[in-house]
Amino acid sequence: MPYRYSPQEYLNMALCYDEAGQVMLRAQQLYAERYGRHLHVRTILGAVQRHRESGSFQTRLDVGRQRHPVQLEEDVLAFFERHPVASIADAARMFGVSQYYVWRLLRNEGLHPYHFTRVQELLPADYAPRVDFCRWLLRNRTYNVLWTDECTFTRQGLFNMHNAHYWSDSNPRVIRPDHFQFRFSVNVWAGIVNGTLLGPVFLERLNTDTYLQFLQNELPELLLDVPVGSRRYLYYQHDGAPAHFSLRVRAYLDEAFQGRWIGRGSVIRWPPRSPDLTPLDFHVWGRAKDLVYGNDGHTIRTVEDLRARIINAFDVMASESEVLSSVRRHCLDRARKCVQVGGRHVQHLM
């Protein structure tokens, strides 16, 4: 039966290793001189590594024998109750068991590794305006809100190196060119009202002049595609971007929509930092970028190519009538949930 070292003996090995300047052969000699026992270098190395990883000299065999299996399971589960963001590897090091053991235990208990939902930071002063707006929306239950927003599409698009793989039985040494020195982008306006998608409209840059020109000349033509019933008493919504808040833009909206526009400086105020309440952010832009960048492997080489992809994406979304028709109901669901939680985040609750 192999010799089992005590925690004190493992500690002595680690001390000799440190005194020897972390040179393994010197540590081996020092331990033999001091304690009269010749150790294999792997024994010393194992003690040092276990202590670095888990803060303990105990081996997995030690932990397994010291704890009853039922008690060990309870301890592991209690560890995750106290530290829900811990990893399987953290627990395996802590209790001296395999990662497979921890994974199987969690799975058998019905626990799953859920991802975080990224949200816009809210300030305490934002809660009341969010509740006020959502109550207005629920009280009116209007079909006629034209939700709008602008978004920038870049050449690079969406690419996560961490999730990108090339499966092969040997390393193919594949590369992916980065277009750092050849970047370009386009700004896109879009809107949605009662199941009708408007856009895309390409804006060279978003400032007072371009936005006002769009409102005066292009928006009226876009609204011709909206059913008459939805155009009647239409509410125009936009957020608090600087171009939206300019005096000329607000003066035009006061004249064109006469108390029926939603935004910063309006009688119906848009709550700041609230992308989770508009369907452009929780549906349109995400769906559009999935379609534009996709997984077809083609590189976007020109601005014209990028614009064509965006137009095609909007054509596809416009044909998804059932999804677009559900947007209004989903907006009301989010508004209702926002009121229930006192103006706090709602993405993770939907």
TrEMBL record:
Q: What InterPro entries has UniProt attached to this entry?
A: RNaseH_sf (IPR036397)
Protein known as = Transposase
Task: Name its species.
Answer: Loxostege sticticalis
